[in-house]
Write a structure and sequence with these properties.
- The chain is an alpha+beta fold.
- The protein has 10 helices and 12 strands.
- The strands form 2 sheets. Strands 1, 2, 3, 4, 5, 6, 8 and 12 form an 8-stranded mixed sheet that branches.
- Strand 1 and strand 2 form a beta hairpin.
- It starts with 9 loop residues before the first strand and ends with a strand.
Length: about 300
């Protein structure tokens, strides 16, 4: 196919996410779990810049320590670029520079945001002009959270979390993130949940669903209602692996948070505040307790090209 190359760098920004609700089904024969989750994209972003090149490469910068990230072909952004190239017949490569701000292995989908931003950047760079539906289909091959990083906003995810349906959300929700200085392995947290359920002999939903109260709270734009309905099946397992998270949850709720929740597989803890002023007060209180606290809002757009 004929490719319309650009020599200019393409700059794409993609958001991190919070799982405001997450129900996890039983482990499947392939080792994965079906989930039902409510995603919200929030104003903590990954910035990806892409230049045409003969090879595929990635380098990292940003506000967090990226020294432990791989830069070879196993990197999710590189995999995204190569997947798009194969799907569209592009013969060249891409040089990627990613400024990371979403916590690494923090349950906020930072790697998925990198992959989604890379798909959008390379599509623009190479002039492949795929539809949003085609990009989402490619995204689903890369990981469960990548399609949502493309679409952003607020959505319900089912299956592995990659089957998305938009959720109507009004107003703006204010969150304070308590960012841990360590990461948690997503497979490790799911494995711990399986062990807890086996030990306790718990009934596990065959087909998990998002509670109606969550959808009502999002539709109403009501943080108080949402705080009452937030839930994450993975939270208990994350706290079992990192007991300090329990103390962080108690600390935030004692300083005015409506509710706190471990986002995804953790260890980032997201506290919901009633409004922006309350969120800023909570951020100050958590910072005074020597926690890395960030005030964000949602919902925000998914991966999009920015003017340089």
């Amino acid at each position: 196919m004929t490719i319309a190359w650009t020599e200019e760098a393409v700059h794409v920004r993609a958001p991190g996410k919070i799982n405001v609700f997450m129900r996890v089904g039983d482990v499947q024969p392939d080792g994965y779990h079906d989930v039902a989750t409510a995603y919200q994209a929030v104003s903590l972003y990954e910035d990806v810049r892409a230049w045409p090149d003969d090879e595929f490469s990635v380098a990292f910068g940003g506000s967090i320590d990226t020294s432990g990230l791989v830069t070879d072909g196993s990197n999710l952004a590189i995999r995204a670029a190569k997947l798009l190239a194969r799907a569209t017949g592009v013969a060249g490569g891409v040089r990627l520079e990613i400024d990371k701000h979403v916590p690494i292995a923090g349950g906020m989908g930072g790697g998925s945001a990198d992959a989604a931003a890379t798909l959008v950047a390379c599509d623009a760079l190479w002039g492949t002009a795929l539809s949003k539906e085609e990009l989402v289909a490619l995204a689903a091959k890369l990981g469960a959270d990548v399609p949502f990083s493309l679409t952003g906003g607020t959505a319900i995810g089912t299956g592995r979390g990659d089957r998305l349906s938009p959720a109507l959300a009004t107003g703006s929700f204010h969150w304070v993130l308590a960012v841990a200085e360590f990461g948690l392995s997503t497979p490790g947290v799911y494995g711990e949940l399986d062990r807890i359920r086996l030990e306790d002999g718990r009934n596990v939903p065959r087909s998990p669903v998002v509670d109606a109260e969550v959808l009502q709270a999002l539709r109403a734009g009501d943080p108080v209602l949402l705080a009452q309905s937030m839930h994450n099946d993975l939270q208990e397992a994350a706290i079992r692996l990192a007991p300090g998270l329990g103390g962080i949850l108690e600390l935030g709720e004692s300083h005015g948070a409506l509710a706190g929740i471990v986002s995804g597989s953790g260890p980032t803890v997201a506290f919901l505040a009633v409004d922006s002023d309350s969120a800023l007060e909570l951020q100050v209180a958590l910072s005074a307790a020597r926690l890395h606290a960030i005030h964000v809002h949602g919902a925000v757009h998914g991966a999009r090209v920015l003017a340089n």
